[in-house]
Design goal:
The chain is mainly alpha-helical and 435 residues long. The chain is built from 21 helices and no strands. Helix 13 runs antiparallel to helix 20, helix 14 packs across helix 17 and helix 16 runs antiparallel to helix 17. The N and C termini lie close together (8 Å). 57% of the residues are buried.
C-alpha cells in the first residue's frame, strides 16, 4: 500500500480497544447536531407558543452556532487540565443538562439550555478531530468519514422527525426538542468511565516530538494557510446553518406544509450521507483537494439557484443538489484541518482556531438571513445572499485546498516517529485514507 507520494504506508490492524474508541467517537458525533437541528423545524411553534419576535427567533437559531465559535477556545484548556477523553465525556454530561433545561417552562430556560448545549457541542467539535488525529493516525480518513457521516445522519434525523415526534408527544415543541436527550444519555453513560480513569495530563498522550513544542492559536494567526482553512470553514458553516434554520420556513412560505418542509430539510442531509462517507477518503488520497472544492460549491450553487427561481417546481431536486454540496463541504473542511495541520499539536491549534473563529463568523449567516427576511418580508434577498456566499467559499476554498502544511519540516527520524515522513512546509504529510 502506498500514499499519494508513492511512499509505502502500513496500516495497523484495529484492536478491540480501537473499535471501542471508534464506537465512542460515533456516539459523540451523533449528538453534536440534533440540539441545534431540531430548532429550525419547530421554530414556528416556538414563536407562537412563547410570543418570540422574528428577531428573537433568529437569535435562538443562531445561538448554538455562536456558542460553537465563542466557546471553542475553552476546549484545549479543558483538555490540558483533564485530558481529551475526560473533556469529551464531561461535554456529554453538560449537553444532557442543557437539553433537559429547555424542557422547563419559561423562555429564559429555552435560551440558557440552548447556550449550555452549544457550549458542550463546541468542546466535542474541537476535540474529536484532535482525538482522531492522535489515536488513529493510520486510518484518519476512515474514522473522519464515520464521524462526519454519524454527525450529518443524526442532523438529518433531527430535522426530519422532530415535528412528527412533537406531534406524537403532545403537539407542542418541547417534546420535539427533549427527545434528543435520549441518545445523549447513552453517550454520557458510554463515556462515563473516562471521567473516572482520566488521562494524567493532556500532553502525556501526545507523541514526544509534539509535547516538546506545543503550538498556540496565536502563532497560527500569522499564518495565511491557517486563515484560509478557517475562512473556508466559516463560509461553509454559515451557509449550512442558515439552511438548517430557515429552509423549512422558505418552503412553507411557498405552500409546503410544516411536515413536508421538515422532510425537505431532512432530505438535504440524508443525501449528504453519501458525500460524508466518500469525501474524507477522496481528500485523504490526494495532496490537492481543489477539485473537491469546485464540486461542492457547484452543487450548492445549483441547489440554491433552484430554490430561488422555482422552489416548488422541483423541490426534491433542489434539496438533493443543496444537500450533496453543503454536506461535501463540511467533511472537506474537517479534513483540511487534519491534512493542513501536519501533526497533532498543529491539529489541536488549527482545530481551535478554525472552529472558534469559523463558527463565530458563520453564526452571522442565519442571523442575517432572518433579519433580511424580517425587513423585506420576502425570502428572495436572503437566498441571493446565500447564493453570493458561494463565491468566497470557492475562492477561499481553492486557496486552502492547495498542497501545503503548517507543521515545519522535521528530520527524517523525527518525522517518521510522528507519522509525517516526507512532510515539508509546502507539502502535506501523507494521511492514510484507510484504503
Amino acid at each position: 500500500m502506498t500514499d499519494h507520494y508513492g511512499v509505502s504506508v502500513s496500516r495497523p490492524r484495529a484492536t478491540n480497544s480501537d473499535l471501542l474508541l471508534i464506537a465512542g467517537v460515533v456516539l459523540v458525533a451523533i449528538n453534536l447536531r440534533p440540539a441545534a437541528a431540531s430548532i429550525g423545524p419547530l421554530i414556528g411553534r416556538i414563536e407562537r407558543d412563547t410570543g418570540l419576535s422574528s428577531g428573537w427567533a433568529s437569535a435562538l437559531t443562531t445561538l448554538p452556532v455562536l456558542c460553537f465559535g465563542l466557546l471553542a477556545p475553552l476546549a484545549p484548556r479543558l483538555a490540558k487540565r483533564f485530558g481529551v477523553r475526560s473533556s469529551i465525556a464531561g461535554a456529554m454530561v453538560v449537553l444532557l443538562a442543557g437539553i433537559t433545561l429547555r424542557l422547563l417552562p419559561g423562555v429564559a430556560f429555552l435560551f440558557v439550555g440552548t447556550a449550555l448545549a452549544g457550549s458542550a457541542i463546541a468542546t466535542g467539535n474541537v476535540l474529536l478531530p484532535v482525538l482522531v488525529r492522535r489515536d488513529f493516525s493510520g486510518r484518519t480518513s476512515t474514522v473522519m468519514a464515520l464521524y462526519s457521516t454519524a454527525l450529518i445522519g443524526f442532523a438529518a434525523l433531527a430535522a426530519g422527525v422532530s415535528v412528527p415526534l412533537a406531534d406524537v408527544l403532545g403537539g407542542g415543541w418541547r417534546g420535539g426538542l427533549g427527545i434528543w436527550a435520549a441518545p445523549v444519555a447513552v453517550a454520557a453513560l458510554a463515556w462515563a468511565p473516562s471521567l473516572v480513569r482520566r488521562e494524567a495530563t493532556a500532553s502525556s498522550a501526545l507523541p514526544d516530538d509534539v509535547t516538546r513544542e506545543r503550538v498556540t492559536v496565536s502563532a497560527l494567526l500569522r499564518r495565511p494557510l491557517a486563515w484560509q482553512v478557517t475562512l473556508f470553514f466559516a463560509v461553509q458553516s454559515g451557509g449550512f446553518y442558515a439552511t438548517l434554520a430557515w429552509l423549512p420556513s422558505i418552503f412553507e412560505s411557498h405552500g409546503a406544509s410544516q411536515s413536508h418542509a421538515g422532510l425537505l430539510l431532512s432530505l438535504t442531509m440524508v443525501v449528504g450521507l453519501l458525500t460524508a462517507l466518500t469525501v474524507p477518503g477522496l481528500a485523504g488520497r490526494k495532496a490537492d483537494q481543489r477539485p473537491l472544492v469546485i464540486g461542492c460549491c457547484a452543487l450548492t450553487a445549483a441547489g440554491l439557484a433552484g430554490v430561488l427561481v422555482a422552489p416548488m417546481s422541483a423541490p426534491y431536486l433542489w434539496t438533493v443538489l443543496l444537500g450533496l454540496g453543503q454536506n461535501a463541504a463540511f467533511p472537506l473542511a474537517l479534513m483540511l484541518i487534519v491534512t493542513r495541520a501536519g501533526d497533532v499539536s498543529h491539529t489541536e491549534a488549527l482545530s481551535t482556531m478554525t472552529q472558534s473563529i469559523g463558527y463565530a463568523l458563520g453564526a452571522f449567516a442565519p442571523l442575517a438571513v432572518g433579519a433580511i427576511h424580517g425587513a423585506a418580508h420576502s425570502w428572495t434577498p436572503s437566498l441571493i445572499l446565500l447564493l453570493a456566499l458561494v463565491v468566497p467559499e470557492l475562492v477561499i476554498g481553492l486557496a486552502a485546498a492547495r498542497d501545503r502544511v503548517l507543521a515545519p519540516q522535521r528530520p527524517a527520524g523525527a518525522a517518521g516517529a510522528a507519522g509525517a515522513a516526507g512532510a515539508t512546509a509546502d507539502r502535506p504529510a501523507p494521511v492514510s485514507a484507510g484504503r
